[in-house]
Amino acid sequence: METLDKTAAGQTGGKQNGSGHYQVPKAKRPTLDEMDLSIGKKTRLHRLLYEHGPGNGTMLLLPIDQGLEHGPIDFIVNPDALDPEFQLRLALDGGFSGIVFHIGLATKYMSKYAGKVPLVLKINGKTNVPSDAQAFSALDATVEDAVRLGADAIGYTLYVGSPRQDQDFLQFNQVRQECERYGMPIIMWAYPRGEAMKAKGGNDSLYAVDYAARVALELGADVVKVNVPDYEKLSQDQPKPYNEMDLGYAGSVSKVVASAGRAMVLFSGGSKVSDEDLMMKARTTIENGATGLIFGRNLWQRPMDQALAITEMMLKMMRES
Questions:
Q1: Which pTM value belongs to this model?
Q2: CATH of the domain at 189
Q3: Out of 6, 122, 225, 255, which one is annotated catalytic?
Q4: How many domains in the chain?
Q5: Catalytic site residue 225?
Q6: Above 50 in pLDDT, residue 7?
Q7: Which domain holds residue 78?
């Protein structure tokens, strides 16, 4: 098995080979044929992976769910982006695999882009006004809505470690059954949350993100969206052996992809960073087994010409991967 080795003096973790090196499985992105999907799911994912975007089995999604999750504050830096037409033009002209909308934006703005820009319908969400201590995203749309709107996948946020995860599991199970009935792929936003997770190293620790990726696989997601783990700060609060695993950037990504098994992994962009840092994130994740990227603020918070330019760079890198 091909592995990635990471040496760290005085730090241990992962699978030791006896010389201070830690072997991380060299992750390989799953193929559609390996995922044993229904015809409907396979057809829809094929559109996202091969008929739009890079077109080589990788995926580049443009999310615009932040208006609900964060409020209008995210659009202040680029007022043009307050109008969803901005993101739709970016998705179309930039050649994205698809765009992510909640039900209101999908209903009111997608009509003239139908068949041109694939839709991922986000069917649950919340505001960021209450504390995340008991995080839970209620349904705001249905799988049937996704079918009616011609979506190629639904998005579902699940908060791993939240005290309300029992309710979350039950709600997701109903969604999963509907997706099986309609042949609709599931992209799970798998986000660690809650005081218990904070006490075990934090929401962005390798332990938390790795666990979230595995939960998505175990519960039946077809694709999982996660953040890149914090590979620079090794929290000693993480359960063993994570508190001793210094895997670096590539190793941490590969570890998460391996834990997701036959669920494809998309890495998010998070808050806006420089062009150089964004391209490094894109390249490192794709080279270490990610199926794709789901970058929102890092693109539509830029002026259109800059957003299109960096999108072109990412697509070129992904096509060459």
A1: 0.94
A2: 3.20.20.70
A3: 225
A4: 1
A5: yes
A6: no
A7: 48-319
